[in-house]
Amino acid sequence: MEYIRAGAPQFKANLHSHSVLSDGKLTPEELVEIYREHGYAVLAITDHEAPYDHTALSTPEMLLVTGYEAYIRPSADAKQDPFGPEVHLNLFARQPHNTTYICYDPPFCKYMPHAEAEALAQAGAREPRRYTPAYINAFIEAARGAGYLVSYNHPGWSMEAEADIMAYRGCFSLEMFNTGAQQISGYECNGALYDRLLRSGRRLYCHGADDNHNVRPLEDPRSDSFGAWTMILASELKYDSILAALEKGDFYASTGPEITSLSILGTVVSLECSPAVRIRMVESPKRTAQVAAEKGKSVTHANFIIPPEAPYVRFSVTAADGTQAHTRAFFRDELGL
Description:
The chain is globular and about 60 Å long. The model has no long low-confidence stretch (mean pLDDT 97). Helices cover 19% and strands 30% of the residues. With 337 residues, it is α+β, with helices and mostly antiparallel strands.
């Protein structure tokens, strides 16, 4: 398996952003411009309960992915509890003009005009939302049936019980990094949770995103833009290619490092990356294989052998400034081992 081929395209993406159409401070046009200026090629504007099609803003250099952020809270009137749990899910449309509204419940539709929301295609039960694993799984299933990929957002910020997270089915990916939540708490790097999900049999991927609202200027140290992203390994910058790559797990999460090649041939792994101080093959939180740089130096290459007892492996790269990149997990059966 040549997961990342040297020299092949990698499209930098922010898969979680908010505009003035919900609680963000920039227009969709302004978001497109600032992310284009910072080297991004893909942007999903995922306003809260607001399924808008922004693909008319796409250019040959910048692709807009259609989607929105849905949320479910214990409060029937959708009131946020800063000390209690809730679940947020990003819905990415496989088809560019799909704006189906999932499980429309008026109290949760706080930004899109209700008449506009009700005029959209609808899927799922139109009833009061319930903060239960059964309801959330039904919501995810309705979204998938309506043509969406569903991601699980900012688990640290969401404060959900781990048993509830483990009960969810159908998400294709977990936010490994979330810039906005990281700026709030400082612990929205979710490698430990990702490994627990993998060990419980959940075969989902991991990605990075900003979740930017741009309340503060871009130069402010507390800015929530450009802190985490997803590198998408698609053949071309076309909507169907980008969504196919997401669905297949052809991407990795980063806050800085770039992985320039990754091949897995049988049990032999070869990884090349931008200058780093440590490259890991994670077998479990208790055991990794590592290549570490001597003090003041860097490494850009690592070779590993996948041991027979490891149920899966995934790879991480850490740069001198502490930024990281994480791949998805590769299970033994998909590697033919």
